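note to self: the first set is below, dont mix up w the second
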Amino acid sequence: MGLSAPLGSARLFERREEKYEIDRASRRVLEAAIAERLPRFNYLQGQPYTFVTTAYFDTSDRDFYRWAEAHYEDNVKIRVKEYYYLAHPERGSPQDDKSFPDEKGRSSLEMGASTENGPSDMRGLEKGAAAGGNGTGKPAIGSAARLVGRGAHAAPWEPAQWEASPKDLALREEGGFLTFDHCFVELKQRANGSVVKKRFAFPKAQLSHLFGGQDVWQILLEITPPSELGPLRVAYGDLRRYLARYPVEVTSIVNYRRTVYQRDESDLRITFDDRIAIYTPIAGLYGERRALTAEALGRPLRTSERVILEIKCPGEYPDWLKGSLRPHSAERLSKFTTSVRLILSDTAWPAIDRNANPEGKAPLDAGGTSTRGGGVSGGGVAGSTVPGGNGTGPKS
């Protein structure tokens, strides 16, 4: 295929995760304290920010959403994430002058004014009339794309460590951004205070085959590093079982800019997400688009000037972090449920009917305890159970 996934693509994470919604002034104080203890992590040298687009998937009845709304600590999310970067960081983002403040000045959003898209903070997203969508403003993508390099040959974007950035996958410059030919498919499960995330890289051009129910194991074998086939079997096997039982479609899209502080991703990891924007779903995702950049997504349904601080850690927080967080309280925040709630705000959705299940289980189950499992043979899936769940939840 001429395509290979980045090292570290197929991964299993299990850790504690907390989220805080803060304003810009609080961010400055917290970030200063964090920067004294942890280095700012750049996936690509010269790139202080990573831009992220997340597409969430759900059934036509929005079963995953409705269960997650009622059970914050016991739910499952299916999502696709794309990471991209500024082609010319010194010039700022192409969207700076439209919806968000750049690094030199303050926009109406930063000063707290409402916009034509409605209220701009996360709490304000729950109020007011929606505006916008994806119907207009999409740039033509394809002929304008420029191949700028592959992996170590793509100076000055030499990789510092591969997660969102491929080892030998082409970077393309289009619309002022650097994009890649792959995305990340993720199954995220929250249970009993822990979060288990399973993911693998996948070619954007083939994504519709995966979510259309086709067996893509051979494609994964061709692009995944041999050392990561173990995690890949678990992630792909569990996702396949969910997709076989629950046909899903794109439900919502969220775009944001991320700043990362960490020494080792498997240890303490702290991120700041800002410039958060919610978009209505796009059928096919990459059918007409090479990349889901903010420019390609068009006009957002809502934007937020608030900052989401996320802390991911396998154990207890260090004392210095506990002290820095003392003035703040962790919140039950979810980009998934917030975005879907806004999109469905004009539609009445019935509550979950527990009487429909004699065992009192959810329509979706994260049940089971094993994060290992059987293998995948010839693309077939056998044996592994979905980790997470507290014994009362769904079975894949």
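second set (the one i keep forgetting abt)
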Amino acid sequence: MGKNPNQEDVSTQMPLDAPTNGGGLAVADSGLTSEAAEPLSAHSAATAQKVVSETSEIDQARTSAIEPVPTVSVEQFEALQREKQDLYDRLLRKQAEFDNFRKRTEKEKIESYDFAVANFILGLLPALDGLERGLSVTEGRVPSRRAPAET
């Protein structure tokens, strides 16, 4: 199915309550603009830096746990490519085999139907011949009705 160009990819959307600063860190929205913000004290700045670094470490750990990057040697990659090609070839062969099976069973079904109809007609022929012989004997003669014999 095609994607709607106006629809955004869900995997790239962030929750509405967690705006980011571009580095993957959530930014608290205090509602204050930069002109209204008060300067931070040395203690507050150190605490803020500590929170940012801890959050950064947590984000890195979470990212590395979610998206492990496997390392594969060239030989392993080539072996996997050959295996993939082998499996794809087997799939194509099985599909062709199934298609041939489907065609063969359809042909056998039609032949079986034709054979059954032919046998049915051959079974009716003796009865039809007997009926024709009986009609040919009485052709031209009308059965007479006789009065019942008196005793």
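remember for set 2: Residues 8-36 have pLDDT under 50 and may be disordered.
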